[in-house]
Design brief:
The protein has six helices and five strands, in the order ααααβαββββα. Helix 3 packs across helix 4 and helix 5 packs across helix 6. The protein is an alpha+beta fold. It is elongated.
Length: about 180
């Protein structure tokens, strides 16, 4: 039994309505009338874009929310059936220092050095391919002179039962990186 539309797809109901011209409930009624529970994610997006002239990004958000709310797709599930989890935070500190702290924490977690590190101001990232085949990425973006935003993302997770624990691990790691920077 579908629940009422929620913000599971990322946008609040108000933002979705403002940006697409229809509320989540309106989109859900359209999709229910089209028997969209039998359609794939890509088919739902195509239907919304081609027939109902929704913007591509809006169609993606509506499709994810519809699938979540109808029990078709689990939170974090990607089109290929794998899962992605993330954690982020704004931290007071220099972009390179935040990346270095993240690399130390994540290297210990991954039990390996990163496969790639990029230190350009517009692309400050480190990535690891884990033994499970998952991809772990740390991205640091400078928001102004003394603040950065750090995002840790693990993708390619094959087992849904691992998602909650991995999300907690990433959230704790972000907090620890912030603590490391505060103590430096």
């Amino acid at each position: 039994m579908p629940r009422s539309p929620s913000a599971a797809g990322g946008l609040s109901d108000a933002k979705l309505a403002a940006r697409t011209g229809r509320s989540a409930r309106d989109w859900f009624e359209i999709l229910d009338a089209e028997a969209a529970t039998r359609l794939s994610h890509d088919q739902i997006v195509s239907l919304l874009v081609d027939v109902y002239e929704a913007p591509e990004w809006g169609a993606q958000a509506v499709a994810v929310r519809y699938q979540h709310d109808h029990g078709i797709r689990l939170p974090g599930e990607q089109d290929d059936g794998t899962f992605t989890v993330s954690a982020s935070r704004s931290i007071r500190g220099a972009q390179q220092a935040v990346l270095d702290a993240a690399i130390l924490r994540l290297s210990a977690l991954a039990k390996s050095e990163p496969d790639e590190v990029h230190r350009l101001p517009e692309r400050t990232t480190a990535s690891w391919t884990l033994g499970s085949g998952d991809l772990l990425v740390a991205r640091v973006v400078s928001s102004d002179g003394d603040r950065c935003s750090i995002s840790l993302v693990q993708s390619g997770i094959r087992l849904p039962e691992l998602v909650a624990g991995l999300r907690q691990t990433l959230e704790k790691t972000v907090v620890r990186v912030a603590g490391d920077i505060a103590q430096a």
